[in-house]
Design brief:
By secondary structure, the chain is α+β, with helices and mostly antiparallel strands. 52% of the residues lie in helices and 20% in strands. It has helices spanning 84-90, 95-103, 113-132, 137-158, 164-183, 190-197, 201-212, 216-234, 239-245, 251-262, 266-282; strands at 2-5, 8-13, 20-24, 32-39, 41-46, 49-54, 57-62, 67-71, 76-82, 107-110. It has a six-stranded antiparallel β-sheet with strand order 1-2-9-4-7-10. It has a four-stranded antiparallel β-sheet with strand order 3-8-5-6, with no helix packed on it.
Length: 292
């Protein structure tokens, strides 16, 4: 659903049963887009390349190039198109930093759930003001957008309001996820990740458990499983080829791993998802709102 009022361009995408695609427009008037993946996952396609991100995270999308946002089934996200005036008028401190992030290559920053919940409430407040258009709605929308930009600036590393320990843990978690994104196909040990971060394995385990509720190994396995499902859903590669691409020397071990993670062997998962896709194309589109 798209809301627009004056300079505000907001797409609020609630969870749906099927994958959805949204074009991300470009133009000189657009400095860039902020993408808030509140839950689930999304893929940003630009040309022949694409970035795959898992929520909760905050992503910065370039304003000068067209792309498409593919939101996975069951995922929720919000997309705000920003003009230079948004940054100049609403966040004097930090505006330059955000402009640089929006002008660079698309990138995502992992966000703790409590931070995303706070952002989600602010986004919901904007939607409410846009729908009701009550008295002083424009002033309220401007205020909420300013708060969102301030929160974004802080999460991107510009803020110094968090306690040192909390800020350090968030930074280490972000760096760990970046390392996982780079190396998840290489079957690295959690100890090797901890060495790269300059911390002990126990500290890495504690940071991941407190921030995400999952262990470092679970986060690596989730990323591997996500990549495997994408290959099974969208490529014509055999299970053996996919296993090799993901760093599994033994296709049988890959099949056992995938079944532990999803409850289905790879071949069965591929058959069911493709059959479900055909059924969705034949039938009417549905959303969670259609459930009894």
């Amino acid at each position: 659903m798209k809301h627009a009022a004056g300079e505000i361009n907001l797409h609020r995408l609630e969870p749906a049963l099927a994958r959805r695609m949204l074009r991300v427009p470009s133009g000189r008037a657009i400095a860039g887009h902020l993408l808030f993946i509140e839950s689930g996952g999304a893929r940003i396609a630009h040309g022949e390349e694409s970035d795959i991100w898992q929520g909760p995270c905050l992503a910065f999308l370039q304003g000068g190039s067209d792309g498409s946002l593919v939101l996975e089934a069951g995922s929720s996200a919000s997309l705000i198109g920003l003009e230079p005036a948004h940054l100049d008028a609403r966040i004097s401190t930090g505006g330059d930093m955000l402009r640089e992030l929006l002008a660079g290559e698309s990138r995502a920053i992992p966000v703790e759930r409590r931070d995303m919940q706070r952002l989600s409430r602010l986004l919901g407040d904007i939607v409410r003001e846009l729908e009701e258009q009550g008295s002083h709605a424009r002033a309220a929308i401007d205020a909420y957008l300013t708060l969102i930009l301030i929160e974004t600036y802080r999460l991107a590393g510009g803020g110094r309001d968090a306690p040192v320990e909390e800020a350090g843990s968030a930074n280490l978690l972000q760096r760990f996820r970046q390392l996982v994104e780079r190396d998840f196909r290489q079957n690295r040990s959690i100890h090797a990740y901890a060495v790269d971060l300059g911390i002990t394995t126990d500290r890495l385990h504690d940071i991941c458990r407190r921030s995400t509720g999952r262990t470092p190994l679970q986060l690596v396995h989730e990323r591997l499983t996500r990549e495997a499902t994408l290959h099974l859903e969208r490529s014509a590669r055999t299970v053996q080829q996919i296993a090799a691409t993901l760093g599994f020397r033994d296709p049988t071990y890959f099949s056992h791993f995938f079944k532990r993670q999803t409850g289905l062997p790879p071949a069965t998962y591929r058959e069911r998802t493709r059959a479900a896709g055909e059924e969705q194309r034949r039938g009417p589109s549905a959303t969670y709102a259609d459930w009894p």
